[in-house]
Amino acid sequence: MAKKRSGGGLTGTQQAAKFLGVSVLAGAVLAGIALPAAGALGLAAKGTVEGFDEIPANLKTPPLSQRTTILNADGGRIATVYSRDRTVVPLEKISPYMQKAIVAIEDSRFYEHGAIDLKGVLRAINRNAQSGGVAQGASTLTQQYVKNVFVEEAGDDPDKVAQATQQTIGRKVRELKYAIQVEEELGKKKILENYLNITFFGQQAYGIESASQRYFSKHAKDLDVEEAAMLAGIVQSPSRYDPVNDAQEAVKRRNVVLQRMADLKDISQAEADRAKASPLKLKVSKPKNGCITAASGAGFFCDYVKQVFLSDPVFGKTREDRAKIWNQGGLTIRTTLSSQAQEAAQQSLKDHVNQDDKVAAAVTMVEPGTGKILAMGQSKPYGFGEHETTINYSVNKKQGGSNFGFPVGSTFKPFLAAAAIEQGRPPTQVYSAPYEMPYPASIPTCSGSPWVNDGGYKLENENETEVGPYALKEAMEKSVNTYFVQMIQDIGLCPVVDITDKLGVVQGNGTKLPVSPSALTLGSTGISPLTMATAYATFANRGTYCTPTAIQAIKTADGKRLDVPKSECSKAMTERTADTINELLRGVVDSGTGQQAGLSGRDNAGKTGTTDERKNAWFVGYTPNLSGAVWVGSASQQVSMEQITIGGVYHDKVFGGRVPGPIWKDAMTGALDGLPAGQFVRVNIPDAQKDPKDKGRDRRRPGGDNKPGDDGDIFPDITFPPDLIGGGTHRGQGGNGGGGR
Prior knowledge:
Number of helices: 23
Helix content: 25-40%
Distance between the termini: 93 Å
Largest sheet: 5 strands, mixed
Strand content: 5-15%
Radius of gyration: 35 Å
Shape: elongated
Oligomer: single chain
Number of strands: 22
Strand order of the largest sheet: 2-1-3-15-16
């Protein structure tokens, strides 16, 4: 009977002997020696493990987590993302030196024994008894592989990882049972291949290919003998033998491996001596993981792709299912992003807005007819440093965007105009559009309960020279507030609700637009640039709305293709209505508030927008084959863009046509360079007959530059109640509201 210490426990040597004795027992089982039932020997005692025969025979090996590569539409790499940096390679693509080195140092009798090395166990018991502690283990490569499978299956769950690595007899016996199965089913070469692909080599590198790239910037097949020996030496203790942080320890360990290879005749002593004398020759490459490393400022698009994957049921029934696939990785995701459009967007942002400006800008481009997102960028880079952010200003909160989107101002007016035309109002519709007027006493809604102006609220145009009557064309070019409020009084709120629903227009938090004249006329509600660009693409696509899409194809590590979400297209309005809106918005860039945004040599249309106190400025426009939205403002909605410097240029007042407009123009010009121009279907909209009393008064305002406020700073002397403009929860983050022109 083993002697006990005064404290009642076994000595360290006795504990080690008992521990390894179980492995001897299991080895005997493997050898086919008849032994009493496991339970009779105490294996099933409380705190150890169930009977050996009761352990499930099939080891479930989860697919190894690998890198996921996100590509643009042209096949260029946007970013590499992974939970574990691993690239699985077959044994023939691993240097023979590496194969010999890992066997030499971890399990030199690997090709001679089965799942357990009885000779190694006895040797370890003897060494441990001599040293008075646990100086040498006896796990074979097969057993180590099984343990790594358990660790891999545990993922990032700390409790599961602890269970997979706990030093207990129970775990060792389970490992052995599965090791027996693995030896029978896989064979030595496959076990070695799997081991080298699953093992952790430190520095975030899992598997030999990633380790080779991390430390030497080369493929695993190209490792020489000293490089292979260094990597093999790391496995025992990745932190202790880390060559990046302790080169001296790494060299000592490498040389131990080299000598072991020489002793086993894997290499000659002369080769070992030469290799020992060589320096480490590290050529370390930094880990390049995540959207923060994305090229061409596409970090926000990269993150959007991830959010789409995690939220779309096409990739799995539950978010947990989808997250498991994402974390497993090994995917190649080809996206819709155009390298030309993305680079043009980022260059335009760089030219017009500085990273450290008080305000930020976002650009989103969508292809009409397909819903493909071609560009998504912003002036503050993706990151965690000063003047950086991980909030994607282009998308809704659910996809990583701002809490509520940003008030869009007069860029909303085309939706109202489309609703009116769908209701049968002609594009020559005239309203009196006085300089100042009270809001209508009531306006019909879909519910049957009208919106009521119970506070006697009024509104006015930008300046006193804006006095009707106006027809729709001129009212759109000048963005006349009173005209559009009279229009919504005429048709009611319900037609606008109907058409914005068909256009996918929701608030940035994903909820429906509030049913109020300010929200459905003057754009007081927070909406994302992606939503606006996609809705305007419907006009370019002659009335057919297509949901935005970012992913074209996904291939797994084994070449299987996954289903991806498709753009869903539906009719939102008649072709005639869309063509009419195109004609109206052509006027905005030809002779209205958006002249500075107008493109040369191709049909284009768009609308400016600026909100209360100039906290947001927009330009949303399109050509027949590209739609783009530009937002400029403060994410916190705390900056009034008056007497402000943006991109090194001083602005007394920021207009939708003056800052966002030029950004849009340059981005679209670059994105469309070399592409066919395309043409809108023209609609003849007669100019309104002017009243003789208007003779001599130029009611047009080239570029909007000579009009204070241009498309913005509405109602400077009026404060509206929250229910009129949708309330604080319907605006940008912490903002003071929308409205505006």
